[in-house]
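Q: Could you fold this chain for me?
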Amino acid sequence: MFVWGPATRIYLAAGATDMRKGFEGLFGLARDRLRLEPLSGHVFLFSNAKRNRLKLLFWDGSGLWVCAKRLEKGRFWWPEAAGGETKVVLSGEELALLLGGIDLAGSKRRAWFRRLVAVGSEAEIPQQIPQKISTNKT
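A: Sure. Below is the predicted structure, expressed as structure tokens.
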């Protein structure tokens, strides 16, 4: 199993993808359909319409990886994107559960602290938590 750091984002492509696509086809989908940079080091997941096959695309700094999995029986749980979005962001834990056959729709996230990350033009730089600044002058 691959291990990614906390800065690595995992993007799941909403809808169905033609599983005949290889390196170049998935690269183009990540760039054009998801509007993300495939060479960013983030992980991109794609699935077919039956949800029994998936492909994972990511750049490790020296080359592009495409990994595939076909289920012999059953289906992957695949979330729906909200509001017409083309992608869903998953955590590393959610990816592990999805690959392990767990349906995340029936699960509930605990109210733990999670640092917010800016998305878009701010290049995913964590938002700083305001801190009190001491005004004592000596």
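A (continued): The helical segments are 23-33, 92-99.
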